[in-house]
Amino acid sequence: MKKVLLGLIFLCSILTNAQETGENSLGTWHMYFGTNKVSEKFSIHTEGQLRYYEQADNFNQLLLRTGLNYHINSDAIVTMGYGYITTDGTFEEFPDETNSREHRIFEQLILKNKVGEFLFEHRYRLEQRFLDFGETTDTQHRARYRLQVTLPLTDIFFLNFYDEIFLNLQDDVFGQNRLYAALGVNVTNNLSVQAGYLKNHFPSANFDRLQIGVTYNPDLRGIFKKNDSGS
Question: Highest taxon of the source (predicted)?
Answer without folding.
Answer: Bacteria
